[in-house]
Specification:
With about 110 residues, chain A is mainly β. In chain A, about 0% of the residues lie in helices and about 50% in strands. Chain A contains no helices and 11 strands. Helices cover about 0% and strands about 45% of the residues of chain B. Chain B is globular. The N and C termini of chain B lie far apart (about 40 Å). The chains are: A mainly beta (about 110), B mainly beta (about 110).
Chain lengths: ~110, ~110
């Protein structure tokens, strides 16, 4: 079934560690996004991609980086995790604008840096 | 700057009562507005778009450009409507969404 997958669902990691949050979609969508959400707050766009080898930073500054080497894969990396990176990270994708246009979201990764 | 405001963090109603979740936006261009919903233990998912002009699960939302609002309404709330609701705005010629802080709807039996 076409879907978008995020792993891991939960991650607790020590300060200074390098981490990669995985996001893959099997819907053939060109556009993919990473949002960050703190409890009770709005979702903030931190990265987006309109296609392979196309990545741009979002409205909220983030120390994370992303890559888009394959259409289906959009991983997010933190080179050195800090407690301030503790948050929920949501991956989403969207296809062509049409009747059913909208974001499809993954289940999210809840990251805790201790 | 573009912004989406949802003034209520929590809205509690009894089953069968009318519901209105408020959403106001600030954007000088021609926006596209969405409502997303997150039920307990489920992912965030699209509920409806203003362009579609549909009723989804009994919910409707009308874009009022004069009042810059896109309130979500349902005449008779059901317990299964209990969820977190997010209003979102897409700027002209972009697929990037700006979200509000969300409103938690609780429908009591």
């Amino acid at each position: 079934e076409a879907d978008i997958y995020q792993t891991p669902r939960y991650l607790v990691i020590g300060t200074g560690k390098k981490i990669t949050l995985e996001c893959s979609q099997t819907m053939g969508h060109d556009k993919m996004y990473w949002y960050q959400q703190d409890p009770g707050m709005e979702l903030h766009l931190i990265h987006y991609s309109y296609g392979v080898n196309s990545t741009e930073k979002g409205d909220l500054s983030s120390e994370s980086t992303v890559s888009r080497i394959r259409t289906e894969h959009f991983p997010l990396t933190l080179e050195s995790a800090r407690p301030s990176h503790t948050s929920q990270y949501l991956c989403a994708s969207s296809g062509l604008r049409g009747v059913d246009y909208g974001y499809t979201f993954g289940s999210g990764t809840r990251l805790t840096v201790v | 700057a573009q912004r989406v405001t949802q003034p209520e963090k929590l809205l509690s109603v009894f089953k069968g009562a009318p519901v209105e979740l408020k959403c106001n936006y600030s954007y000088s261009g021609s926006p596209e507005l969405f409502w997303y919903v997150q039920y307990s233990r489920q992912r965030l998912q699209l509920l409806l778009r203003h362009i579609s002009r549909e009723s989804i699960k009994g919910f409707t939302a009308d874009l009022n450009k004069g009042e810059t609002s896109f309130h979500l309404k349902k005449p008779f709330a059901q317990e299964e409507d209990s969820a977190m609701y997010y209003c979102a705005l897409s700027r002209t010629n972009t697929d990037k969404l700006i979200f509000g802080t969300g409103t938690r709807l609780q429908v009591f039996p």
